[in-house]
Design a protein that fits this description.
The chain is 62% helix and 0% strand. It is mainly alpha-helical. It has one domain (44-237). Helix 4 runs antiparallel to helix 5 (167-200). The termini are far apart.
């Protein structure tokens, strides 16, 4: 086997020629690697952006479903307030047959968490990162408000089975639950308005389906009349209710 020894350079010109070839080769390799990394990052960013934006649109469509029932929630709270004022510490006349509750919407953040956990969000520019975080903040506020709201309405449903006079303790209990429900109603409204405003800054507007287009139309438990017998209300809601039925 012949072994070729490197030839000695003959002069500065030949040395510079070899040097330039080596440098250009190294720079070309580095440049190609950087282009490949940039393309991978661009693809990863686009994939993460698509997933997160889709998740935001879905959440906003749920919020629009909630907006479609806001009038029912306000009306039911006013009806309960009127009943409590009329009863004072005495009996409820008439006692409500059906209180119901606002529909609860599952707000998702798994895709945003996956994007932040994997570091893909860092591929977005600072402005976009800030706008996305700004959307998910009121989404989280909305989810928390819904949870507290359901707890207040669970207390209000006690009016359906209350017998005898309210008394001081009962009146205070239900008035407190009513005020909590009113506050969380306001809280959900504020969270929704902020979320939609901030989403518009990301260009998420017309892509969000209307509540009726998304299938969030009535019936909703809180929209049934307060004098609806419970069995009848449960029957009306059975078609669209989850398998676990209506809360007591």
């Amino acid at each position: 086997m012949d072994i070729h020894k490197p030839k000695p350079w003959h002069g500065v010109r030949e040395f510079l020629k070899e040097y330039v070839i080596i440098v250009v080769g190294v720079l070309t390799a580095l440049g190609a690697e950087q282009v490949a990394v940039a393309l991978r990052d661009r693809h990863a960013a686009a994939e993460a952006r698509g997933a997160v934006y889709t998740e935001i649109r879905l959440n906003l469509s749920y919020m629009q479903g909630r907006m479609a029932t806001q009038a029912c929630v306000e009306r039911r709270l006013d009806e309960i307030g009127t009943l409590l004022v009329k009863a004072g510490e005495g009996p409820l006349t008439p006692r409500p047959d059906w209180i119901g509750q606002p529909s609860s919407w599952l707000i998702a953040a798994q895709r945003w968490q996956a994007a932040t956990g994997s570091g893909r969000v860092s591929l977005f520019d600072d402005a976009e990162q800030g706008r996305l975080a700004g959307v998910y903040s009121p989404l989280s506020r909305f989810a928390d408000a819904q949870e507290s709201e359901q707890a207040a309405w669970a207390q209000l449903r006690g009016l359906e089975t209350w017998t005898g006079p309210l008394g001081p303790a009962g009146r205070i209990h239900f008035l407190s639950a009513l005020q909590q429900a009113r506050y969380e109603l306001w809280n959900t409204r504020v969270a929704m308005e902020i979320a939609f405003r901030r989403a518009r800054a990301l260009g998420i507007t017309k892509e969000t389906p209307k509540a009726t287009e998304a299938g969030y139309e009535l019936p909703h438990a809180v929209c049934l009349p307060i004098d609806t017998p419970r069995d009848e209300a449960v029957s009306q809601l059975a078609v669209d209710s989850p398998p676990w039925g209506q809360p007591r």
